[in-house]
Amino acid sequence: xxxxxxKPLFDRPGPWxxxxxxxxxxxxxxAKVQELRDRSxxxxxxxxxxxxxxxxxxxxxxxREPVSGSPPGRALFATGAEVxxxxxxxxxxxxxxxxxxxxxxVAPLAxxxxxxxxxxxxxxDRTGADFELRDGHRRESLGQxxxxxxxxxxxxxxxxxxxxWHYRNKVExxxxxxxxxxxxxxxRAWPGSGAELLVLAGDARERRAVHHRLPERxxxxxxxxxxxxRSPGASKRLLDQQIARACEQFARDRLHSALDRFRVGRxxxxxxxxxxxxxxxxxQAAEGMPxxxxxxxxxxxxxxxxxxxxxxxxxxxWIGPGVDEVGVQRGHVQAMGVxxxxxxxxxxALLRSAAAADCEVLLVPDGTPGPxxxxxxxxxxxx
Length: 383
What we know:
The protein is of the alpha+beta class.
């Protein structure tokens, strides 16, 4: 999970109301069920200590939930009588979770938002391509690329003579020029899109031509889909299924790669070493609360590995108002110039620091061997 979208939450002080709620409407009495859910959410927030103005802001936002097209669930974060962030969830929360705390309770997002990569889809044909950015339930058009289509179309037969070569050559040149135009637009749009995966859909010959011309950094994260078309009204059902499988495979490969790097950097089983005392080369890692807190605070972390149900994730750490003011002991934070450190959940505090450092977070599923205590990190560098 990339954390850039969470940064607005850390620009202002708390306390924060955090709410995770099921917003699916799959039954005939969905409206009544939703009303009861909203009341329960309000009651839980009030019991947790939230002020009336902030609770009202959350309830007003929930009341504007559309009857159709709602995501399975939502996470709302509010403070000072304002909903600062409203996040659609890929999965419905198993139960309403409402908290009032010094930091927004963002840790459940790692599980409920889903770990699908942001995906750029290019619908390719002989005339160009349409671009679409997919991020969870959101789909956004990113424009199009236009190529030069040769006018020699149709199903006519050509004589087997010297004109056949010219005909085929012009068609091939048209395909290549269109592919060059599409690749140029993709290379321009890719950095600003935030996409992690490129899916090429549409005509087979044209998408292969595009694939072969992509810059290496993009080609390494590109897959081709056999379904999908630029034609108006074309069904996307099969394409959606292929994209879902490609995203799931991408997420699995990313997690396994990170865990492999973590195990190499950690060293032998049972050898838990603090990052600040190590220089282990390209596979350096941190494991356990003190080491991970130290690495996150210093912006050393490239990938934070988090097991939500593990013991360390639920522990408390000391924090200050700054995103990097976090420590296992109160004295550590006071030494940073914080007069009155406060206690916060370790996972929320680490995610705050990780978002500021632009690192990614990967959730280690139950049953997958991961870091001891449930917290680990693959580092960018070591001291």
